Amino acid sequence: MYALIEFKGKQYKAEKGAVLKVDRIDAEPGSALEIDSVLLVGGGASETPVAVGTPYVGGYKVAARVEAHEKGKKIIVFKYKPKKDYRRKQGHRQQYSIIRIEDIIGA
Question: Where are the domains of the chain?
């Protein structure tokens, strides 16, 4: 069974045991999450193989656990204007949280 979820403005495919890399959330590693914005559920043993929400499927939730926090690869933002002596260099490292999908709770 799998579910498409919306989390922090982005969509992810969640399956039991899957590990997702999402934007950083303010939660301690080891704490539990419950995501109720489920867009689609499929692959179940029910009569309807796929349930599509408008926009969300009612009665379904995804239980997850925060595993760790990490930083992504460093990128360099370099802006310049030719012949004008304008140069700006800036680095950025995006922060991520690693979550593990424990279960898809459904009606």
Answer: 2-105
pLDDT in tens, 21-65: 999 999 999 999 999 999 999 886 665 678 888 899 988 999 999
CA distance 23 to 10: 9
> DSSP strand E in the chain: where?
2-7, 10-15, 19-23, 32-35, 38-42, 50-52, 61-71, 75-81, 86-92, 95-105
Are the beta carbons of 21 and 96 closer than 8 angstroms?
Answer: yes
Residue pLDDT, tens place only, 62-83 = 999 999 999 999 999 999 999 9
Tell me the two tokens of residue 67.
């595993």
- DSSP label of 45: S
